[in-house]
């Protein structure tokens, strides 16, 4: 078993039901779980990839339901190099909550250069979209975040979004 060159801890944050668990499952196993709450209790999933010729183990943390209390523990953020800040493109409420999640992250993450990507999930639900891409992109730019949209259901852009985040982290630590 070869050893990895880097381990990158990435936390997934955002309101309940935006699709965090599904996105994580999609990226680490390329699966969509119909019974998504079966993963409660699992703290993180990993996937090892090659970035810049190096073996990078992405350790992606799931809140496992803690976010229902509107915040997660500081231990959740500890050592994180990246954060995937997820909202649901069909829910303005979840988009507005992203600002609160960002404030919580900035207040409690121990790493001030944490790389954050704002990710609009459920992009497959085109008929019930409630958040424009332009508006979200403007918020991301204003806050210094990377921005993407994806669908954990179809798998569209999930790989690209996580890889984009991991490559930005690699650019900082390598
Ligand atoms: P979490 O609470 O943020 O971890 O959200 P889950 O991953 O449990 O997903 C919440 C609900 O949204 C579940 O019913 C999922 O099946 C559904 N869901 C998640 N991602 C998508 C997506 O990309 N498209 C659609 N249409 N539904 C999704």
* Relative strand content: 15-25%
Number of strands: 6
Bound heterogens, unique: guanosine-5'-diphosphate
| Shape designation | globular
- As an assembly, this protein is single chain
Helix fraction bin = 25-40%
> How would a crystallographer describe the biggest sheet?
6 strands, mixed
**Class per helix and strand makeup:** alpha/beta
Summed over residues and divided by their number, the pLDDT gives a mean of 90
Show unreliable segments: none
* Alpha carbon gap, first and last residue: 23 Å
Radius of gyration: 15 Å
Summarize the helix and strand pattern as letters.
EHEEHEHEHEH
User: What's the total helix number?
Assistant: 5
How would you write the strand order of the largest sheet? 2-3-1-4-5-6
């Amino acid at each position: 078993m070869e050893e990895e060159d880097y381990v990158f801890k990435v936390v997934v944050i955002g309101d309940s039901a935006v699709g965090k668990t599904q996105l994580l499952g999609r990226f680490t196993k390329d699966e969509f779980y119909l019974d998504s709450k079966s993963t409660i209790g699992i703290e993180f999933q990993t996937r090892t990839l090659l970035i810049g010729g190096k073996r990078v183990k992405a350790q992606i943390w799931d809140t496992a339901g803690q976010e229902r209390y509107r915040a997660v523990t500081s231990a959740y953020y500890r050592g994180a190099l990246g954060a995937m800040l997820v909202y649901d493109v069909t829910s303005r409420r979840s988009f507005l909550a992203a600002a609160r999640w960002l404030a919580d992250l900035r207040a409690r993450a121990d790493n001030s250069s944490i790389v954050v990507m704002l990710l609009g999930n459920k992009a497959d639900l085109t008929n019930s979209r409630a958040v424009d891409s332009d508006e979200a992109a403007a918020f991301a730019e204003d806050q210094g975040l990377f921005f993407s949209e994806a669908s954990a259901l179809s798998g569209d852009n999930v790989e690209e979004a996580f890889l984009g985040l991991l490559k930005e982290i690699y650019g900082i630590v390598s």
